[in-house]
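A student in our group prepared the protein record below, which I am reviewing. What it holds is a sequence and that sequence's fold in token form. My question to you is simply how this chain folds and whether the tokens agree. Do not assume that whoever made the record got everything right. I have pasted the whole thing underneath without changing anything:
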Amino acid sequence: ISYFFFFQAEDGIRDAQESRGLGDVYKRQTWECLAEFVLGVTEKCFTALTGPGQEVLGSKQMDEVVRRLQCSTQTPVPASVRDAVQGLFRVLNRDNSGTLEAHELQQLLNVLGPEGNQLVGMLHRGGTGQVDLQRFGEFIVGLGTASFDRLDSDKSGWLEANEVRGVAECFGVPLEVALQGMDKSMDGRLDKEEYVVFLLRHCMGGVEHRQFRQGVARLFSAGRSGVKQPEYHDMNKQDFTLFV
């Protein structure tokens, strides 16, 4: 979309102040045009959020404004994480309906084991009985990233060998085996992308082979305190492009 601004030099007698030339005129008219444009966009946004005749945003509508602003400022999800989310969602969504129902989420619970009860309950509770890709992705990636942040004790942005050791213990394997499976860059440490992708793909393998995967629920649960229960809105999916 392109926007064009047209400027017009002033004619006639100006106020009794020293003129600073046409540059002053252009600058002032640019800001006037910009202000008019912003006000027009704001009015359209307000109209889209409110009902007929409504002049004040309610608390839920204000929450929605804040949530959309937060979504617009989030760091883009890496392609590998997005692909892993879509892959896990696809193997769970056996009827290809585009949403996960209770019996499909049960597959995820079978992979996580009893420790995953609360996690799956957080994802499913409060909804309409169905979870779409967007909500699923936001929740599961949120758990993974919050888990990483909690394990990253020195806040370096990496899981060094001493921090990965705790992950290896959850999986019941030696540190070397854990690094071999998770450290795709082969630099002896894990970044957030490597960690989250591994958890998601490990879950996907468990669903495909109908196997319990030791330690996954415990690691996801480590991030539970940093993730809110998903909120369900009757929103157009085009509003959310993070996992599309």
